[in-house]
């Protein structure tokens, strides 16, 4: 059997198993999730041992301490995986829900029933906890999952998947419902991305390079975001203390994540008062300001911005700052340089708040709140399987509901068309 | 400028125009739609003249009379295009609707606002009325549209698009919101399908060949259905008169469309009574039965079914018939041979009705109703832009709502994350 055939067979088996998952009672799915939490706790020594192999190999390869940190299955990480499983078990089951059931003039009753997508392919990088989080969400939504983690976490991922599959077997569920790529070969990913008959959706999570690779090579629909270049626009009449809080939180609370604030736009009428005020706060937190000419005048410590600073995802204590003429100029700048992730306005004006919400094309648009809120947990979706900045199917943080679709159902009493 | 550049520029202009459309007030959109209806009536002589060129060319090329019939813009077709425009104007505007607005523990209010997709690419075959129907639905949903009709309808399509664009100009709306492919060159379609930065969604409508070509060559997401192989399963305890009505309506009311019934599955305990009964009715309507061995025994006029008859979209007065052991065997047959379009059960049993609805994976699943009801109009969606049998974004008939997506909006009062 060639490698392509092997990968294909894994996907065929997963699709077969998913047909059963689609009709599994909620109580069984929740029991499986609780069993997985128990299994991970019971098998933690085995998991640790396998994780140590990855860590040792990582040290040999000279991975950075940040990378090794992401790789390590510490007590804390294992605890949070276990808690995550319990949280997913506690979420309402979206499958089977019937919405919009209406009686039509012909006499038929038409509604939409929520159903699983089928098989979800997850392609991700170093954090092995994604293995457990993704498997749990896909299972709860009634989907099979085909996991392909980073090569540096292969032992950890195989160990975690084994623990999860053992729980499926104990519950007499086909363990192929959770498949894991057995090889770290890059060609295997290419093979996976051609299996449009078996895999319904691909979700890549990781750096922009990985995501572009997946998007460009997949024949299967991909839900993804390349990056988060989130702007905050401080309007003429903004509450300046509030604006400082929102900018500081967005930039400094966790600068390395996709919903961190990367750029600040300031209405020219607010710039005189606001820029020195926020400049002091940012300088105090060690944030480098890269600003336009007007910003440089009002805050002398500003580094002159280069063209490449607009639309840049710094993921660091760096903030691009520009003074703009009005809300239209701010929205134009965002349309040109934003990444359709998250955009925020700080304003006390009703009209501009409503316009910004309506007119800015981004998956999250906010008034008077930190961009850091763009998150499935903060939005009440439960857990998050990813974020989409493409508009088909899902736009923004994706939870259980986004792992399902709706089919039409018809209750008739013998109606025919005339 | 190369042809690829020309096509790209049309799409760039369309995307630019779509940004304005996205925020157009409902009253303006409805006025434009009414203006288009007027424009078509006022310009009917011009439209007819151009249509005559296509008809003459079609006759020269030896098109069938059925093809010429689909191409002709008769009074009736023009009347139905005009009525379609008024109907789309009368539909509720989905854009701007805010759903699920909830207060989160952090204090922020989070909801989902319905927004346009951006630019929709329509690729279709001979019927020029699709030009008007698709433009109207896309406009109402706030999308730009890039139209590429069949080469045999090029003069008609260009004429219709010109009339629609003139109305946009009169309303001071950028006419690039409705673009039409100026050439019938096949290469131009290939160019269009690469424009993922400008076009958000492709909807192909036509024969399976066209749709497969589009799906295989597009870098843009495609919503499509290849074919409709719709089954009716007559359960053991079905009301047999009702079952005959449903089968006859599904097979004979309009055999050439995708929601026509192509196959009949009969529970073995119902076969003795049902097959002679439905056989008489089908024979009376000139329907050829291609059946399994058991069917042949109970209805001697049966043509023995070949393997290729299962899962075949006949689009003609032919019906594949198979006797099955039970509802599970019926659902297995459907899983193997169905096309995820529309599947129906005729039953008087509560349990099997509910199981069939829940377990059959198709975009429309029906109890005791004709498969011919699988239609946007019949479901109350208003007009239909197409049918999707893929699960991402839309599954089943697609109306205005399916031409939009939802973004997250956040109303804050200065909240930051802790």
Task: Note down, in words, how this protein is organized.
By secondary structure, chain A is α/β, with parallel strands linked by helices. Chain A has two domains: 239 residues, Aldehyde Dehydrogenase, Chain A, domain 1; 149 residues, Aldehyde Dehydrogenase, Chain A, domain 2, CATH 3.40.309. Chain A is 44% helix and 21% strand. Chain A contains 15 helices and 16 strands. In chain A, strands 10-9-11-8-7-12-13 form a seven-stranded parallel sheet, with helices on both faces. In chain A, strands 5-4-3-6 form a four-stranded parallel sheet, with helices on both faces. In chain A, helix 10 links the parallel strand 7 and strand 8. In chain A, helix 2 crosses helix 7 and helix 3 runs antiparallel to helix 7. The first copy, chain A, is globular and about 70 Å long. Chains A and B meet through strand 2, helix 10, helix 14, strand 13 and strand 16 of A and strand 2, helix 10, helix 14, strand 13 and strand 16 of B.
């Amino acid at each position: 059997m060639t490698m392509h055939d092997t990968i294909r067979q894994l996907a065929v088996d997963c699709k077969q198993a998913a047909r059963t998952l689609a009709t599994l009672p909620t109580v069984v799915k929740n029991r499986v999730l609780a069993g997985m939490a128990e299994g991970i706790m019971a098998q933690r020594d085995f998991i640790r041992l396998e994780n140590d192999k990855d860590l040792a190999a990582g040290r040999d390869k000279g991975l950075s301490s940040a990378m090794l940190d992401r790789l390590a299955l510490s007590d804390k990480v294992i605890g949070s995986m276990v808690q995550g499983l319990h949280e997913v078990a506690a979420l309402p089951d979206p499958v089977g829900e019937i919405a919009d059931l209406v009686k039509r003039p012909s006499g038929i009753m038409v509604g939409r029933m929520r159903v699983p997508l089928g098989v979800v392919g997850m392609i991700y990088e170093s954090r092995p906890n994604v293995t457990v989080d993704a498997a749990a969400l896909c299972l709860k939504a009634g989907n099979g999952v085909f996991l392909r983690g980073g090569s540096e976490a292969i032992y950890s991922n195989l160990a975690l998947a084994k623990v999860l599959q053992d729980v499926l077997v104990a519950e007499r569920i086909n363990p192929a419902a959770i498949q894991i790529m057995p090889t770290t070969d890059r060609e295997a990913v290419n093979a996976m991305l051609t299996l449009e008959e078996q895999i319904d959706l691909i979700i890549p999570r990781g750096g922009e390079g990985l995501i572009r690779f997946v998007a460009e090579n997949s024949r299967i629909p991909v839900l993804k975001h390349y990056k988060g270049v989130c702007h905050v626009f401080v309007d003429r009449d903004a509450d300046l203390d509030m604006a400082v809080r929102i900018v500081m939180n967005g930039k400094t609370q966790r600068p390395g994540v996709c919903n961190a604030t990367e750029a600040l736009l300031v209405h020219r009428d607010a710039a005189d008062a606001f820029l020195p005020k926020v400049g002091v706060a940012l300088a105090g937190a060690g944030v480098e300001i890269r600003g336009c000419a007007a910003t440089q005048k009002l805050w002398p410590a500003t580094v002159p911005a280069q063209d490449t600073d607009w639309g840049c995802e710094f993921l660091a204590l760096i903030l691009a700052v520009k003074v703009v003429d009005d809300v239209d100029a701010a929205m134009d700048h965002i349309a040109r340089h934003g990444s359709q992730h998250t955009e925020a306005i700080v304003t006390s004006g009703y009209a501009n708040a409503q316009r910004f919400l309506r007119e800015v094309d981004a998956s999250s648009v906010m008034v008077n709140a930190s961009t850091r809120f763009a998150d499935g947990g903060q939005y009440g979706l439960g857990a998050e399987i990813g974020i989409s900045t493409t508009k088909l199917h899902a736009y923004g943080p994706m939870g259980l509901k986004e792992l399902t679709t709706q089919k039409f159902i018809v209750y008739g009493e013998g109606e025919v068309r005339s």
